[in-house]
Amino acid sequence: MFELIKVIDVKNNIIKKLIFVIIILSLFCCSKKKISDFNSQSGVSRSENTVLIASFNALRLGEKQKDYSAFAKILSNFDLIGLEEVMNEKGVKKVRAHLEKLTQENWDYIISDHSVGSENYREFYAFIYRKNKFFEAKPVGFYAEKDENEFMREPFGAYFKSGNFDFVYIIAHSVFGDKEKQRLIEASNYANVYEYFSKLTDEDDIIIAGDFNMSADSLAFKNLSEKYDVSYILDPKGNPTTLSDTKLVSSYDNFFINQKKQKNLLEIMEFIILYQIIIMLK
Q: Are 110 and 158 in contact (CB under 8 A)?
């Protein structure tokens, strides 16, 4: 599951327009032809005034066998990627090494200081980013739960500044669980996550992204929209993001932002659902 935000800056580092482009890249194997055709098919162009932001459930990065060269070719299209299902730091370092070899640029990463989850399964969160795109990048930390039952895996945030645009990027991997009730509870608690990071950082530009194991149009997310005017970017209807054995099915992956505050800040905002392709990493 792979989503992309495209943030466009203009000359003199004054942001005039913010465009979000959603690209679904599900799941894990990729032909060289598809990778080489990525930019031409997507319409995404790179420039020094453009920052491309993505979120990726990396499927047990560092533990499960992967073709890291193919993985790096995909990630190299972006400047900042939030990674879920990171099993260890070794996996992130390996991705960085392949990215630097491929792009001949310096990359860096932020990884959560500890793993989160249950006794049977735990994972880290990580961000990996192109260093020359960001003046500042630092961890903000985990969401501080109001009680221990809010999340199985607490969301993790980091602060980034590129040009004149600074923002907090929060990545999440919600529980799937044995019962839908568990997913509904976690979905309803993302309003608390937004409030927490907004107060902690005094930042209006907050992005929440990841694998929510719940369609973004579920009523369970209504706290986000009703309390803070935060809503999803990718319309779940007709835009599945989860791959079954044969096809794309449930729409569990998305981005959530406060569109009204963004509109007050920026002159123009557009949301574009661009296209869907299937990428497999061996």
A: yes
